[in-house]
Amino acid sequence: MTTRVLFDEPGPRGRARIRLWTVVALVVLAGLLALALWQFGRNGQLGRSRWAPFLSPDYIAFLGAGLRGTLVATALGAVFSFPLGVVLALGRLSSTRPVRWAATAYVELFRGVPLLLLIYAFLLALPRFGINLPILAKLVVPIVLVNTAVIAEIVRAGVKAVDHGQAEAAAALGLRDGATMRLVVLPQAVRLVVPALVTQLVALLKDSTLGYVVSYPELMKQGNNLTVYTHLLVQTYLIVAVIYVVANLLLSRLATYLEGRLGARVRGRVTGTPAEAQQAMV
C-alpha cells in the first residue's frame, strides 16, 4: 500500500523504458569496470606479487583487528543510540512543554553539528578542561550524540505514521496514555521504520571510519597504516572497500529479514480472533 501511494506503478511503456535504461546502465558500468581493470593491469597493479601478501596470516590478522575495532565502535554506538533515540522521540512527543522543548533543542542542535567537528571537540577542546576520555570513547560518544538525534526523528516519524485509530482503540480498552504508547503505538511505529533504522545503522558503520582522527584502530585506520608499510595502496583500499560492502549487504539482509518477521507477526495478529487480538494488544 505504501508503495502504491508513493510510487505510481508504470504501464507497459514505462516498464519497457525502465528495462532499457537498466540494460544501458549495466553496460556502462561493465565498460567502466573493464576500463579500470585494463588500467590496473597496464600499470602492474594486478600482478600476483601485489595481491599475494594479503593471503598471509599477518596481513589477515592486521585487517581483522581493524574490522573488530569497527564492529566494536558500531555496536557500542548502536547500543546507546537506538534506545536513547526512542526516549528522545518520546520526549519530543511529550505533552509536557519543558520536556518537549528540551528534546527538540537537542535534536535540532546535534542534527546540525557535523560529526567530525564533535570528534575534534572531544579530541582537542575538552582535554583542556580536564575531560580526557579514552580513545574509543572519543569516537563513540560523538557518534552517539549525533545518531541519537537522527534516530529520534526516525522514530517520531514512525509514531506519527501510525493510524490514530490504534490509540483510540487502546483507550477504549482502558489503557492509559503511557501503556498505549508502549504496547500499541511504539511497536507498530518501529515496524514501519525498520528499513530506515537499518539504513541509519549502515550510516553509523560508516561513521566509525572517522576513528582515524583519534587514532582508533578501526578498519580504515588499519588499512591506512598498512599502506604506509607496504605501499600497496590500491590493493589495500580495494580489499577494505569490499569488506565494507559485504558488511553493508549483510545489514541490508538483516533489514529484509526483520521486516518480514515483523510483518508476519502483525499479519498473524490481524487474522486472529477478536479475543486473540485484544489479548495480544494487552
Task: Describe the structure using short key phrases.
mainly alpha; MetI-like fold; 81% helix
Q: What would your notes on this structure say?
A:
The chain is 81% helix and 0% strand. The protein is mostly helical and 282 residues long. It has a single domain, classed as MetI-like fold (Orthogonal Bundle). The protein is flat and about 70 Å long. The relative contact order is 0.10. The N terminus is likely disordered.
Rg of Cα set: 24 Å
CATH architecture: Orthogonal Bundle
The share of residues in helices is over 70%
- Beta percentage is under 5%
Number of strands: 0
Helix and strand sequence: HHHHHHHHHHHHH
Our measurement of the CA-to-CA distance between the termini, rounded to an integer number of angstroms, reads 27 Å
CATH superfamily: MetI-like
Given the structure, what is the number of helices? 13
Are there runs of 5+ residues with pLDDT below 50, and where?
Answer: 1-6, 269-278
Number of domains: 1
Overall mean pLDDT:
82
Shape: flat
Q: Note the quaternary state here.
A: single chain
What structural category characterises the helix and strand content? Answer: mainly alpha
Largest sheet: none
Instruction: Kindly identify the CATH topology.
Output: MetI-like fold
